[in-house]
């Protein structure tokens, strides 16, 4: 996404890497989100045009650096950043209402350890982040593309995982979570076969939810309906 206009339609959009794993849905920012965006984007926003960043320069320090891909409305990311002021967080989200909502959370909570991209995560990975810059990558509840014919659109694929691997330092964490059992099985298969990663649990085992992953309203609602949630925590070995 190269501009900040509202985008309508619900069909996947192609990029130089093929079909995207998300759709650009209709939706406008609320007045509060728009005002927060206008006030805070110049300070907290990062763009493709900035090219390869130096996180130490962006944050003014050299601390643990986290990347969340697809932060939704941003509350969980804001919760994590508020709970760990000694860490730094970069969030990526293509839907502008979510970007506006996170910027409002940043303002309301007085957070200084968050920066935001409003572009395709592929561009952030390929064009904006240095190799071995990240301590942790988080992908929570990505679109499951539950129909079998759409499984190719799922974000977690071998090629994507390997590109993330190069952005993680050795020992860095890739934390995935989903509430779709079939997608959890798909993720486990992909990660189990991925070069340079090892499961933090026994082979083929899912992880207990780490205490620092907030439980979302969506997740709580799913749990009351009997839906399961699966966390996968892998670390880079080489």
Automatic annotation (TrEMBL):
Name of the top EC class for this enzyme: transferase
Reactions catalysed, as given in the entry = guanosine(46) in tRNA + S-adenosyl-L-methionine = N(7)-methylguanosine(46) in tRNA + S-adenosyl-L-homocysteine
Q: Does the keyword Isomerase apply?
A: no
The annotated pathway is: tRNA modification; N(7)-methylguanine-tRNA biosynthesis
What keyword terms does UniProt attach to this protein?
Methyltransferase, S-adenosyl-L-methionine, Transferase, tRNA processing
Report the leader peptide range: none
Region of interest: Disordered: 1-20
The reply to whether Nucleotidyltransferase figures as a keyword in the UniProt entry is: no
So which domain of life are we looking at?
Answer: Bacteria
GO molecular function, one example?
A: tRNA (guanine(46)-N7)-methyltransferase activity
SUPFAM superfamilies listed in its UniProt record: S-adenosyl-L-methionine-dependent methyltransferases (SSF53335)
Residues given in the record as substrate binding sites: 147, 179, 216-219
Record: residues binding S-adenosyl-L-methionine: 68, 93, 120, 143
Q: Which PROSITE patterns match?
A: SAM_MT_TRMB
Function of the protein: Catalyzes the formation of N(7)-methylguanine at position 46 (m7G46) in tRNA.
Name listed for the protein in its UniProt record: tRNA (guanine-N(7)-)-methyltransferase
- Species source reads Marinobacter algicola DG893
Which gene is the coding source of this polypeptide chain?
trmB
